[in-house]
Design brief:
The complex is a heterodimer of chains A (344) and B (530).
Chain A lengths: L3 H7 L3 H35 L6 H26 L7 H22 L4 H30 L3 H20 L9 H7 L3 E2 L2 E2 H19 L1 H11 L1 H6 L4 H27 L10 H11 L11 H20 L4 H27 L1
Antiparallel strand pairs in A: 1-2
Helix pairs in contact in A: 2-13, 3-8, 3-9, 3-11, 3-12, 3-13, 4-5, 4-6, 4-11, 4-12, 5-6, 5-11, 7-11, 8-9, 9-11, 12-13, 12-14
Chain B lengths: L14 H4 L5 E10 L2 E11 L4 E5 L6 H8 L7 E6 L2 E2 L5 H6 L2 E4 L11 H5 L6 E2 L2 E2 L1 H15 L14 H13 L5 E5 L7 H16 L3 E5 L3 H7 L2 E6 L2 E7 L5 H9 L17 E10 L7 E6 L3 E5 L6 H9 L4 E8 L2 E3 L4 H6 L2 E4 L3 H5 L6 H6 L9 E2 L2 E2 L1 H15 L15 H13 L5 E5 L7 H16 L3 E5 L3 H7 L2 E6 L2 E7 L5 H6 L4 H7 L9
Parallel strand pairs in B: 3-10, 3-11, 6-9, 9-10, 15-22, 15-23, 18-21, 21-22
Antiparallel strand pairs in B: 1-2, 1-4, 4-5, 7-8, 11-12, 13-14, 13-16, 16-17, 19-20, 23-24
Helix pairs in contact in B: 14-15
The chains are: A mainly alpha (344), B alpha/beta (530).
Chain lengths: 344, 530
């Protein structure tokens, strides 16, 4: 075709060179800062408090981080589509209570088949999570209510339900196979939850990068109108994302319940805030469209490290929440500053 | 999913007998939005292999019509037939499946995704929800290569220039089999060269029997491309004409409903003292580079130039909205150091931004509040921090009368007003205080013909009342017919100053483009500068 060569000459990629540089800078900022900070934190901690480097402590950090990584990767999905999920911690509580209560009820019916009781109990917990997620998704997608308000409402509903069902009393009596054998199971001396989390993170990474569902999440969060006119069934995928997020939270709730050994309406109270913090520290944009699960996992690890450091240094637990608050504001501040710079 | 090469769409079904049967046949189309009849009894027909131009003012209903055609929103009445089949419940997804590919002005690209991901958005090659990335990559490369666009599939859309985004958008439309291609002012952000390439692609597609709907109000493009032209005005069909048989003047008459010259008032030139002057003005981002410019009392000065040439930024820098690196600004003989909007307003200079929604108006607030927002520091409106609602209301009423804002209710929320009336609400801000210098940035973008004429008359009033008026506009006729003096801006610099009779389209256009590039191409600057 005539003009091909001329075109090539004219469209000299001025913009390209510039943008490539900024992309590299961005990547460096996002990827480089967090691991660097964590390494510095570890070295300093190891020097001040040798207990930090003991394997028991490191395993403890990893286990705590695992729960947070899981739930934060759920939060990440909702943030990527430009939403918000405040109900995530309440879902953990509701799941915990539902799982424990249904196992107790089932064990009376099938006293000998532990595996069946456990599977059904887990399914009930996941079902409770899915129900909250579906409700969140439908109200956000169909009624166009701000996700902030919707999930604030379901937060209240779910935690209210959990409290009402238990009257605030922990629910004991789940099969030992679940609480002792599974909850405290170790493989190669590492808690089983670490393996499960790793598997889930890989699954989510694969979903975000290699499936339509993942691509559509990014597209919807990036420009919902564009996704719609491109033929993406936006409403469906918004509902699906909220449901997936709640199911991941439910899974976290089940693992925590197994670990704690009882169903508790107070479980996961801090996880909502921490999940958002971990996601934002991991570079997820609050405006949607941007976020990678591997970075979110790093963000969660970072938060777990900071908490562990404060515990080892005997920082008052009331002061700890203040520190976490400061970290969150800093993370959001840096994120906003960066995205402004990139836009310029 | 089919994987044919892009530029080989399926030939029209039915071959010879149906060769001239219309691809699209619309009859009696109606579309209602809350409070407006956006389309009323529209007839539209598209044949295979033709370029059918949709022509009309902003707000005439062109965008609504192409949105109906591409399934973004359904029509409320009338029949829409595609290849002989009546379409109902069309949505964007189905429209693309049957080969209707729109290229919208506001891009359907997700900025955080790569070009590759965007091109396939909604139509990924996948199996059970799992993406086949390598196959998509091959196809994207092939399409970009075929089109001769210099884009890299891996780039994020947010990092592209507007022209590159436009090219990505076109590539997206052509990725799959196309039977109807809709282009909504595609050249608005393209360079001359890119435009020529686009026209070649259009010629190719025509030869393959693709029907092309082309929305534009650029005469040169219509002459170059159109087979037929359908003119819309205020949501109604004015007529469909053969492009060869109709003159430019006739088209403009059809579009505006009045003769061309009647729209622009004659403004007496009573140039007095220089009120605003810049020397060596350079902004930090270099979009304004070393600009010497002045405007006198009673004078209308036009600034013309391509999108992105820096003409907007010049006014914004003077008003204190862009960072200035060096240079001087003098307002009424007094030097201005570090301009800021509040400061400039106080000293009698007012800037009306082009993006009224983003920068001008608080949409959910009332007409009254919007009108007086910029004047609340005046004694007439506030004392000791308390507002005087009564005097606010009085002024608002007066402004509504003077500018004929419709509806005339000062408490009406601005979001319910049309583009023209919104602009009038904005302009009221400049009329409440003693302003000597007005800077208009695209004063008539997005507003209807009637309101345009009123705004031109307001500019006449201002200038003849002794104010200095600067009109920055991408609409050449505006600059040509209103200005006593005109500057042409190119890549941040003023490249020409024209006065009186010199201000004609050909002269201005000649200064629009970069010589180096033209020499390289070996083509005369603008043989079709209509």
């Amino acid at each position: 075709m005539r003009g091909n060569t001329i075109m090539e000459k004219i469209l000299t990629p001025i913009h390209k060179a510039e943008s490539r540089q900024s992309a590299v800078m961005r990547r460096l900022m996002v990827l480089g800062l967090l691991p660097l900070l964590m390494i510095v934190l570890c070295i300093v901690l190891g020097m001040i408090e040798p207990k930090f480097l003991r394997s028991a402590n490191l395993i403890n950090v990893l286990r705590n981080a695992s729960f947070l990584m899981l739930i934060a990767s759920g939060q990440m999905m909702v943030l990527i589509i430009g939403g918000f999920d405040l109900s995530i911690g309440a879902v953990v509580a509701l799941t915990s209570v539902t799982t424990a209560l249904s196992m107790n009820a089932l064990i009376a019916i099938f006293p000998d088949s532990y595996l069946l009781v456990i599977s059904l109990g887990v399914l009930a917990g996941l079902g409770a999570g899915a129900a909250v997620g579906l409700l969140n998704g439908f109200v956000v997608a169909l009624m166009k209510v701000s996700p902030f308000m919707v999930t604030l409402g379901t937060l209240s509903i779910a935690s209210g339900l959990a409290l009402y069902m238990t009257q605030g009393v922990p629910v004991y009596g789940m099969p030992d196979l679940f609480t002792r054998d599974f909850g405290r199971m170790r493989i190669f001396n590492l808690p089983v939850v670490i393996y499960l989390t790793a598997a889930m993170l890989i699954l989510i990474w694969w979903m975000m990068n290699h499936t339509k569902f993942g691509k559509y999440m990014y597209a919807i969060g990036s420009n919902e109108h564009a996704a719609r006119v491109s033929g993406v069934k936006v409403t469906f995928y918004i509902v699906a994302t909220y449901t997936a997020c709640s199911m991941v939270a439910a899974l976290t709730g089940i693992l925590l319940t197994a670990r704690v050994g009882s169903g508790e309406a107070g479980l996961g109270a801090t996880l909502m805030m921490e999940s958002i913090a971990a996601a934002v520290i991991g570079g997820v944009s609050l405006r949607g469209g941007v976020g990678r699960v591997e970075m979110v996992a790093l963000g969660a690890l970072f938060l777990a490290l900071v908490t562990n450091a404060m515990n080892l240094l005997r920082v008052d637990s009331k002061l700890q929440t203040i520190v976490i608050g400061v970290v969150i504001i800093l993370a959001v501040g840096i994120e906003t500053y960066q995205s402004k710079r990139v836009k310029r | 999913m089919t994987t044919n090469t892009t530029l080989n769409p399926p030939t029209a079904t039915g071959q010879s007998s149906a060769a001239n049967a219309p691809l699209i046949d619309m009859k009696g189309i109606q579309k209602r939005f809350p409070g407006v009849l956006a389309l009323d009894q529209i007839e539209f027909e598209l044949r295979p292999g033709e370029v059918h131009v949709l022509f009309g003012e902003n707000g005439a209903g062109k965008s609504t019509l192409i949105n109906v055609i591409s399934g973004t929103f359904p029509q409320d009445g009338g029949t829409y037939t595609f290849c002989g089949e009546a379409l109902s419940n069309l949505n964007p997804y189905r429209a693309r499946q049957i080969g209707i590919s729109p290229v919208f002005q506001e891009f359907s690209l997700a900025p955080d995704l790569t070009i590759e991901e965007n091109l396939f958005l909604g139509r990924e090659i996948s199996k059970g929800g799992v993406l086949n990335k390598s196959e998509m990559r091959t196809k994207v490369a092939q399409v970009l290569d075929n089109l001769g666009f210099d884009l890299s599939a891996k780039q994020r859309v947010a990092e592209l220039s507007r022209a590159q985004q436009q090219m990505a958008e076109i590539a997206k439309a052509l990725l799959h089999d196309v039977r109807v291609l809709i282009l909504d002012e595609p050249t608005a952000s393209l360079s001359e060269r890119e435009t020529e390439r686009l026209f070649e692609i259009i010629d190719d597609l025509k030869a393959q029997g693709v029907g092309i709907i082309y929305v534009s109000h650029r005469m040169a493009e219509i002459k170059r491309l159109a087979d037929r032209v359908t003119v819309l005005r205020d949501g109604r069909l004015v007529g469909t004409v053969e492009a060869e048989l109709v003159s430019e003047e006739k088209l403009i008459e059809m579009m505006t409903g009045r003769t061309f010259e009647a729209m622009f008032p004659h403004i007496e030139n009573r140039a007095g003292d220089t009120l605003l002057q810049t020397s060596g003005l350079t902004t930090r981002d270099r979009l304004v580079d070393n600009v010497d410019f002045n405007v006198k009392a009673g004078e209308v000065v036009g600034i013309a130039g391509l999108v992105g040439c820096g003409k907007s930024e010049l006014a914004r820098a003077i008003f204190g909205l862009e960072d200035i690196e060096s240079g001087k600004i003098e307002l009424m003989g007094q030097p201005v150091t570090r301009p800021s909007p509040a400061h400039m307003l106080k000293r009698g200079l007012c800037y009306f931004p082009s993006d009224r929604v983003a920068e001008g108006l608080a949409l959910p607030r009332s007409v009254r509040e919007n009108m007086t927002l910029a004047a609340l520091d005046l004694k007439a409106f506030a004392s000791r921090g308390f507002l005087k609602i009564k005097s606010e209301r009085r002024i608002a009423d007066e402004m509504i009368r003077r500018l004929t804002v419709a509806p005339g209710d000062p408490e009406k929320r601005v979001e319910f007003l049309s583009g023209g009336n919104r602009q009038k609400v904005m302009l009221a801000r400049g009329l409440e205080r003693d302003v000597k210098v007005y800077l208009f940035d695209e004063p008539t973008v997005g507003i209807d013909v009637g309101a345009k004429a009123e705004i031109y008359n307001l500019i006449k009033e201002m200038a003849e009342g002794g104010a200095a008026v600067v009109v920055i506009s991408s609409e050449l006729p505006e600059v040509i017919h209103l200005s006593h003096r005109a500057y042409v801006m190119h890549r941040g610099a003023l490249v020409a100053e024209l006065t009186g009779e010199e201000i004609v389209e050909a002269t201005i256009l000649a200064h629009f483009f970069d010589r180096d590039h033209l020499d390289e191409a070996g083509e005369p600057p603008l043989q079709d500068a209509g």
